[in-house]
Each structure stands twice: as C-alpha cells, then as structure tokens.
Design goal:
With 176 residues, the protein is an alpha+beta fold. 46% of the residues lie in helices and 12% in strands. A hairpin with a 2-residue loop joins strand 3 and strand 4.
Length: 176
C-alpha cells in the first residue's frame, strides 16, 4: 500500500472527485480504501469505476489528457482565425485520445486557457488534420473580423445599409 503522503499527492493532482477515484484505483487502492480516504460513500466510488467500464473506457487514464507543456510569452500563435495571432495567455499544449464513441475530453487547464466555464458551448471547425475551437464570444469576434474585412474603408455597415435603403425609398417615391 502507498504511504498517506503519496496518496494525498495523487489525489491533489486531480481536478474532480471522479478523477481522484480513478487515479487512486490505478494506484492500487481498493474501493473501500478510496471511499475512506476521500470521505465518500463506497457506492459513489463503485458507480464511478463501474460507469467507466460500461462506457468501454475501462479505467481511463487522465495522463492521456495531461498538460504537455506551457510556453510563455505567447506571441504569434496560430489562433486558427487568421487574425494577429497574439495572445496574452500562455499556450496550453495538450494531448487527447479519442474515446471509442469518438468523444474527446478537454482537460480543465484547457478550458481555463479558453476562459470557458464547464458546460459552456465551444464552436469548432474541423478541417483535414486539425480542429479549431473557440468560445462563443471568440467566434462572434472572429465573425465580426471577417465581415469587417469585406467592408471597404472605415465605413459603417449599418450606415451604408440605411443610406442604401433611403436611396431606394427616394427612388420609389420618384418613380411614383
């Protein structure tokens, strides 16, 4: 059996209770020991581990999702948007493994790098060999950049549309 400090270190390295359960299970603790250590019901521990088996994950290994490295400062990183590419946050390099059902699990540090909360919708674009993910706010900003690039000069699109409509209305009045 592992010493209590090692068990605590393993548990502290995990983001969620379920991840703690999985890590302690991989370390060789039995379900009752995990439940006692985490002050959780045995049934909770069992449910987490059995649900993983039912999903075909066996004992998923969160190390598949570990942060590979961090780079600072983050200048000129390809944000997939064709914009300036500059970012104030460090890059969060990571590795993912596709599950049997095709799903990918984003680690917490990646969501934090996105500035996204759990449950927040991310917008993705899949191209051969790559996937670009953006928060809804970043997607809106990117769409605005793309539209802005189509407008000549510094004209306001709204002002141009209103002016066009006024000309059309004036022309309709003149035509009778």
């Amino acid at each position: 059996m592992l010493d209590p400090q090692e068990i605590q270190r393993l548990a502290d390295a995990q983001a969620s209770v379920s991840d703690k359960i999985r890590a302690l299970d991989r370390a060789g603790l039995n379900r009752a020991e995990i439940a006692r250590f985490l002050s959780k019901r045995y049934q909770h521990v069992r449910n987490v581990l059995e649900a993983d088996k039912l999903k075909g994950h066996g004992n998923p290994d969160p190390s598949r999702y570990h942060q590979v490295g961090t780079q600072q400062p983050q200048i000129g990183v390809n944000d997939g948007g064709g914009g300036s590419g500059e970012s104030r946050a460090p890059a969060a390099f990571f590795r993912l493994t596709a599950e049997r059902d095709g799903s990918l699990v984003l680690p917490r540090h990646v969501l934090e790098a996105f500035g996204a909360a759990a449950g927040e919708v991310l917008i993705g674009v899949a191209q051969p060999g790559e996937i670009v993910l953006r928060t809804a706010a970043a997607s809106l900003s990117r769409a605005q950049e793309l539209i802005r690039a189509l407008i000549p000069g510094d004209d306001s699109l709204a002002d141009s549309l209103v002016a066009d409509r006024r000309r059309e209305a004036e022309q309709e009045r003149a035509d009778g």
